[in-house]
Amino acid sequence: MALTHNLGFPRIGAKRELKFGLESYWKGQSTRDELEALGAHLRERHWGKQAQLDLVPVGDFSFYDQVLDMSFTLGNLPERVRGFQGDALDNYFRVARGRSAQSAEAHAGCCGGVAAGEMTKWFDTNYHYIVPEFAADTTFALDASRLVEQLREAREQGVAAKPVIIGPLTYLWLGKAKDDSNKLDLLARLLPVYARLLDTLADEGAEWVQIDEPVLVTELDADWRHAFNLAYHELKASKVKLLLATYFGTLQENLHLAANLPVAGVHVDAVRARDEVESLLNLLPASKVVSLGVIDGRNIWKTDLAAALDWLEPLHERLGDRLWLAPSCSLLHVPVDLDSEQRLEADVRSWLAFARQKLEELRVLAFALNFGRAAVQAELDANRAAIEARRASPRVHNPAVKAALQQLTAALGQRKSPYAVRATKQAAHLKLPKFPTTTIGSFPQTPDIRQARSQFKAGEIDAATYRAAMKAEIARSVREQEALGLDVLVHGEAERNDMVEYFGEQLDGYAFSQFGWVQSYGSRCVKPPILFGDISRPKAMTVEWSQYAQSLTDKPMKGMLTGPVTILNWSFVRDDQPRATTCWQLALAIREEVLDLEKAGVRVIQIDEAALREGLPLRRAQWQEYLDWAVTSFRITANGVEDETQIHTHMCYSEFNDIIASIADMDADVITIETSRSDMELLDAFDHFNYPNEIGPGVYDIHSPNIPDPQHMVDLMKKAAERIPAERLWVNPDCGLKTRQWNEVIPALTNMVDAARVLRAEV
Ligand code: GLN
Ligand code: ZN
């Protein structure tokens, strides 16, 4: 009998109950008991929805983050929060969120101000974890209470519990040594704690423990590979059976290692690494369980069950009871329940599966394997109908788009003249001063703006009233920018809810869920739009707004667009064609918008690629392929314009060392980036590369409400001028201002414009 299990269930709740519970607790509007009760309630509900599985994950629930949970379980708390007198859960939130000095006043004598733990992306997902902190003298001490309590809870509810923990190597790999010591040296101290944890779980009745080691799908050097062997040989003595879980990619050179570690079973991502399964089976000792992650845990499409069975049936024949079935990874990365959706069009809806539906697919697969396809014929027929309908749908396949893609040539991505020629023409045309000032696009999204938008969506005001309200906001931001004396203005993006959704809503090929939320970090969720079909642009998307804004001023007005790579990376995208193809379609659609803006007289156009870097594959060997199509997409979008039209791009991060050649290859006339917090050192990458075009290194951090000091900004720009010739520098903030208030924005930009004046006189 093939057995079914799950690696993790979304914890946030189908209606984001956990988010609201956490935020109410943090504001002091509910008690800790209420929050704990909510946690227990969600766990119970989620276990209930997984009851049909043979093994159900326990310990995947978290009040903030599973990596931070592990740090507490292992007793690895940052020094600054040790010895805290208050409640343990509050201390946990202190590490997760920090506590500012301001609120510390109210907490004088108890907790004091404390810095939040650093947050970073969980592999190639949009989930962010709290980075474990290490030093040479880090020690560990087991606190198994969370897992033990949840196991008991599960047992009382009759759940077939399989505790889930992060493995020792992945835990170390995810962390950061604050003193440049070698984190691997901590392994010897860490392993006894893991050994005790496993025994504790065994004593609590666990037969299997899922131990997650996703680092096995990344490039590991010899030390780390050796450490894997060492660690698992030491843990071999434990009383539980270990299921070593890998996911998000292929094992490649780690395949042999993973197959031979002394564990009772191995889980592999059979969506992204299906081609490796055969080799794994050949390497794997005949005693071991093989868990195949056959349902995509990273996307929202229905599985083609017949195709999955075609592949699985011979494997089942061969493996018998040793075969387990699961989603490819934890379902943390997909929304909870398609049944919540009331507004999706029937066809698109019939193509989708969220977490609950994916588990139902798993049940059907196992049933078909164990009892024959006929036992679930109705389910298989319904699945086949949906798969075929999607495959044949004219809403998915648009011949005109496919034909346009056939016509793609390198020339489409080529500016008419090289940068130096363009720069001269643009200078003559735009007549900007040295150190020109600009902003990144958005101005504050005020309560009035939000209210107008929600009234419009609810049908309480009509389109004309809504547009008039947005135009008034645009007029206001133009007035403010003129008064500030900025050189290149923006319209302020009042009419945009979100930089991806706004474009998705106007493109054919996109659908939007109501409750398709996925946890990004803590209580924060994102609702990625669903890109289901060939992408086309029925009509201009931004031209009217930009044209209106330009009509209010003699200064150049920047047209403002989101780039194809960012739209792709922040959406759920189709799985029936390569990502590159989808990206090129997006590129062609946004290119039309660029050309329409140009035609409408907009002479500076910014194309944001905030998410370009985060799309990098997990393995470096695959970086170049991604960068090639990503850069090509940007070039197709941007480079059809005349020499006089100035193309800007913006990226809100600053680690460019690895990708600087590709960034230069985008050939934007101006790039604005985040640099203020790094003292301009991040410009070194541009300097060493001899980056040829213009750069606006952000001079102040928009995440902080603090008003930046003019002299500090002057000093930063002087540092920038040591690396980049002054005539190629712009002065701007790190990112858009939508999360700030006008009373912060005005003084901050006043100081920034003053700083630019000083620079013009002094540099
Ligand atoms: N133009 C966008 C804004 O200013 C850019 C946002 C971003 O880079 N994340 O809001
Ligand atoms: Zn940004």
From TrEMBL:
<keyword id="KW-0808">Transferase</keyword>
<feature type="binding site">
    <location>
        <position position="608"/>
    </location>
    <ligand>
        <name>L-homocysteine</name>
    </ligand>
</feature>
<comment type="similarity">
    <text>Belongs to the vitamin-B12 independent methionine synthase family.</text>
</comment>
<dbReference type="InterPro" id="IPR038071">
    <property type="entry name" value="UROD/MetE-like_sf"/>
</dbReference>
<dbReference type="Pfam" id="PF01717">
    <property type="entry name" value="Meth_synt_2"/>
</dbReference>
<feature type="binding site">
    <location>
        <position position="652"/>
    </location>
    <ligand>
        <name>Zn(2+)</name>
    </ligand>
</feature>
<feature type="binding site">
    <location>
        <begin position="16"/>
        <end position="19"/>
    </location>
    <ligand>
        <name>5-methyltetrahydropteroyltri-L-glutamate</name>
    </ligand>
</feature>
<feature type="binding site">
    <location>
        <position position="19"/>
    </location>
    <ligand>
        <name>5-methyltetrahydropteroyltri-L-glutamate</name>
    </ligand>
</feature>
<comment type="pathway">
    <text>Amino-acid biosynthesis; L-methionine biosynthesis via de novo pathway; L-methionine from L-homocysteine (MetE route): step 1/1.</text>
</comment>
<feature type="binding site">
    <location>
        <position position="665"/>
    </location>
    <ligand>
        <name>Zn(2+) 1</name>
    </ligand>
</feature>
<dbReference type="InterPro" id="IPR006276">
    <property type="entry name" value="Cobalamin-indep_Met_synthase"/>
</dbReference>
<comment type="function">
    <text>Catalyzes the transfer of a methyl group from 5-methyltetrahydrofolate to homocysteine resulting in methionine formation.</text>
</comment>
<feature type="binding site">
    <location>
        <position position="608"/>
    </location>
    <ligand>
        <name>L-methionine</name>
    </ligand>
</feature>
<feature type="binding site">
    <location>
        <position position="121"/>
    </location>
    <ligand>
        <name>5-methyltetrahydropteroyltri-L-glutamate</name>
    </ligand>
</feature>
<feature type="binding site">
    <location>
        <position position="650"/>
    </location>
    <ligand>
        <name>Zn(2+) 1</name>
    </ligand>
</feature>
<dbReference type="GO" id="GO:0008270">
    <property type="term" value="F:zinc ion binding"/>
</dbReference>
<dbReference type="Pfam" id="PF08267">
    <property type="entry name" value="Meth_synt_1"/>
</dbReference>
<feature type="binding site">
    <location>
        <begin position="440"/>
        <end position="442"/>
    </location>
    <ligand>
        <name>L-methionine</name>
    </ligand>
</feature>
<feature type="binding site">
    <location>
        <position position="652"/>
    </location>
    <ligand>
        <name>Zn(2+) 1</name>
    </ligand>
</feature>
<feature type="binding site">
    <location>
        <begin position="440"/>
        <end position="442"/>
    </location>
    <ligand>
        <name>L-homocysteine</name>
    </ligand>
</feature>
<keyword id="KW-0479">Metal-binding</keyword>
<dbReference type="GO" id="GO:0032259">
    <property type="term" value="P:methylation"/>
</dbReference>
<feature type="binding site">
    <location>
        <position position="493"/>
    </location>
    <ligand>
        <name>L-homocysteine</name>
    </ligand>
</feature>
<feature type="binding site">
    <location>
        <position position="650"/>
    </location>
    <ligand>
        <name>Zn(2+)</name>
    </ligand>
</feature>
<protein>
    <recommendedName>
        <fullName>5-methyltetrahydropteroyltriglutamate--homocysteine methyltransferase</fullName>
        <ecNumber>2.1.1.14</ecNumber>
    </recommendedName>
</protein>
<feature type="binding site">
    <location>
        <position position="614"/>
    </location>
    <ligand>
        <name>5-methyltetrahydropteroyltri-L-glutamate</name>
    </ligand>
</feature>
<keyword id="KW-0862">Zinc</keyword>
<dbReference type="GO" id="GO:0003871">
    <property type="term" value="F:5-methyltetrahydropteroyltriglutamate-homocysteine S-methyltransferase activity"/>
</dbReference>
<dbReference type="GO" id="GO:0071265">
    <property type="term" value="P:L-methionine biosynthetic process"/>
</dbReference>
<keyword id="KW-0489">Methyltransferase</keyword>
<feature type="binding site">
    <location>
        <position position="674"/>
    </location>
    <ligand>
        <name>Zn(2+) 1</name>
    </ligand>
</feature>
<dbReference type="InterPro" id="IPR002629">
    <property type="entry name" value="Met_Synth_C/arc"/>
</dbReference>
<feature type="binding site">
    <location>
        <position position="126"/>
    </location>
    <ligand>
        <name>5-methyltetrahydropteroyltri-L-glutamate</name>
    </ligand>
</feature>
<keyword id="KW-0677">Repeat</keyword>
<feature type="domain" description="Cobalamin-independent methionine synthase MetE N-terminal">
    <location>
        <begin position="4"/>
        <end position="318"/>
    </location>
</feature>
<feature type="binding site">
    <location>
        <position position="735"/>
    </location>
    <ligand>
        <name>Zn(2+)</name>
    </ligand>
</feature>
<feature type="binding site">
    <location>
        <begin position="524"/>
        <end position="525"/>
    </location>
    <ligand>
        <name>5-methyltetrahydropteroyltri-L-glutamate</name>
    </ligand>
</feature>
<feature type="binding site">
    <location>
        <position position="674"/>
    </location>
    <ligand>
        <name>Zn(2+)</name>
    </ligand>
</feature>
<feature type="binding site">
    <location>
        <position position="493"/>
    </location>
    <ligand>
        <name>L-methionine</name>
    </ligand>
</feature>
<dbReference type="InterPro" id="IPR013215">
    <property type="entry name" value="Cbl-indep_Met_Synth_N"/>
</dbReference>
<feature type="active site" description="Proton donor">
    <location>
        <position position="703"/>
    </location>
</feature>
<keyword id="KW-0486">Methionine biosynthesis</keyword>
